[in-house]
Structures are given as C-alpha cells and as structure tokens.
Amino acid sequence: MSSQDIPEKNLPAEQDAHGAVSVADDKDPFADPGLPPHEHRIQDIDERAAKRSERAVAMLFVVSMLATVAFIAAYVAIPVDRSVYIFPIGHISALNFALGMTLGISLFCIGAGAVHWARTLMSDVEVAEDRHAVQSPPEVKAKVLADFAEGAKESALGRRKLIRNTMFGALALFPLSGVVLLRDLGPLPGTSLRHTLWSKGKLLVNMNTNEPLRPSDVAVGSLTFAKPEGLEEHDHDFQKEIAKAALMIVRIQPDNIKDKRELEWSHEGIVAYSKICTHVGCPISLYEQQTHHALCPCHQSTFDLSDGARVIFGPAGHALPQLRIGVNDEGYLEALGDFEEPVGPAFWERG
C-alpha cells in the first residue's frame, strides 16, 4: 500500500523540511538537488499496522525479560562441571553455553525492539538544516530544546503505553544478569579457609626431595619447606591446597625459644610455621639465622620465629600460625593436628 492509495485526509500533515533547491552557477558549481518527495510508511497511514508494530516491539522486550530470567535460572540450576555436545562445536560447558545464549538473546531483543520501534513508529521525516557556526546563539539552544521535546512527543512514548512498559521491564530486569555474575568472583568459601590438609599423623614431606623428614634432616639455623603427605604436584587441587598447607620449618636451640607454647609444640627445637604471610598471602622465603627473623619479600613483614612468629615489622596483622609436630614410631616428623587458626591473610569472620 502506498500513500497514493490513501485518501488525503488520512495522511499525516507534511512538514516543510525539504531543503531549498539551488541552481549551479560560477560561484556554486555543485547544485543542491534537494530531497525526494517523502514517502509515508504503512504505519503512518494505517493504525492497524502501527498496532502490529507496537505488539512486535513489545514482544521483543518481553522475550528479553524472559531471557534474563532464564539466564538467572541457568546460573543457579546448571552444575559448573556439566558438559553438552553442540554440533559442530563439540563438547562444551553447559553452563557457559546457557549463559551465553540467554544473555545474547536478552541483549539482541532489547536492541531489535528499539530499532524496530524507531523504524516503524517514530517519526521518519527527513530534515535538512544548513550548517552554522560552532558557537550556538541562544535562539538555537532554544530550538534544540524544542526539537528534543518534539522528538519525545513524536516517539509516542506516552501514547504507546504497551511499548513503554515492556521496555522499562526489559531494561529493569537486564542489569540483574550482571548482579548475579558477581557471585563468580569466587565460590562461597564456607569453612574451607579454616582448615588445611594437615591432620594428626600426617608426615612432613620435604618440598625439594619429596621425602618424609626426620629430625636429623633439619639442622640448626636451616630453613626447610614442607608439604603434607599425599599431596602431589600433579593433583588437580594442588595449588589450592598448598596455598594453605605450605610449611616453613626451622630448628632453633630450645634455650633460644622465648614463647612457651611454641616450645611445647616443637620437637627438639624444630618448629613448623605456615609459610603464608598474614598480610596478603605471599610465600615467605627469607630467614635470618642469627636473629631467627623470617621476612616476607612482598611487603617486608617480619616475624620472629623464636617468639611465636609475632610480627615485629611491616603491615602483617597477626603472627604466623604454628603447626604442632612430633615424631612417629618410625622416627619421622608428623603433624599432631591441623592449625588451630586460619592461615594467610585475616578475614572479617576470622576466629
């Protein structure tokens, strides 16, 4: 249907927006051809077509809302380790596929709805405007505000309540996708930060030789790093577990140990402390033999290993946790339990 088939009384009023046609001359060799006659869209001359477009736009916004809800449901319901086969991609993460599809549909429908709205229902009258100086005089500023108000009126946002309400619904729900994704900053730790692999009877294994340690293997003034028995570097969760269970072992003359509990939890002057700094979790690797001070290389927090590993310098908030150790029947160093407090940096619910 064209505008020629509609009675003139049904056609929208024409706006005088066509640029004036100029003729080429010596001063202006390029004539302004003007704008072609304006062709009305079917939605401009048939309210039923406009209603169809309105429903189509609203449907796109509703689909966007449903996709956002599906995104949240998939995030909650689909296990992170589940996979699906998608031809021709192959086996992929079911969670990633579901999140990508629903998020993509939600975004696409918002964009498609806005584009369809603009192309079928908003005003499409061509407007030609002469170039002007960069600095706008007051009357131009007033005209801009008037044009903005006219554009808002022509968008029919106030009259097309179905579009307005569904668009607001889609835009209001979509940010929930980002809010839900904040949970992927990391799984909820539960009580995992309070426990390590150390338990009663676990042997202390040398990190370098991968052999169980005997008291004779630790010389006075030496620094040895140890891990729990059974934890291997090829294990899937090795990095997560060693970050909590890594030990720093030194041997100090018992007479030089100032802290009573430290002496009770040691074996013949061999003391075992967490290797993880209590500031931001860096591994401690520097030891001063004469002062018994352990130094974190990241921010220079210093701990006195002869006095309960208390902080004597730097930003660390509390002493290094000590592991109580002993010797089993075969003469190997073993743990007598887990750390009695969480290792590493402090957190707000630290016990």
Q: Summary?
A:
The protein has 351 residues and is α+β, with helices and mostly antiparallel strands. The protein is 32% helix and 14% strand.
Layout: helices, strands, pairs:
Elements: H1 42-45, H2 47-77, E1 83-86, E2 90-93, H3 94-120, H4 138-154, H5 161-173, H6 175-181, E3 204-206, E4 223-228, H7 238-245, E5 247-251, H8 260-264, E6 270-274, E7 286-288, E8 293-295, E9 302-304, E10 310-313, E11 322-323, E12 325-327, E13 333-335
Antiparallel strand pairs: 1-2, 3-4, 4-5, 5-6, 6-11, 7-8, 8-9, 9-10, 12-13
Describe this structure in words.
The protein has 351 residues and is an alpha+beta fold. 32% of the residues lie in helices and 14% in strands. The chain is built from 8 helices and 13 strands. It has a 5-stranded antiparallel beta sheet with strand order 3-4-5-6-11. A 4-stranded antiparallel beta sheet has the order 7-8-9-10, with no helix packed on it. A hairpin with a 3-residue loop joins strand 1 and strand 2. Helix 2 runs parallel beside helix 5. The radius of gyration is 37 Å and the shape is elongated.
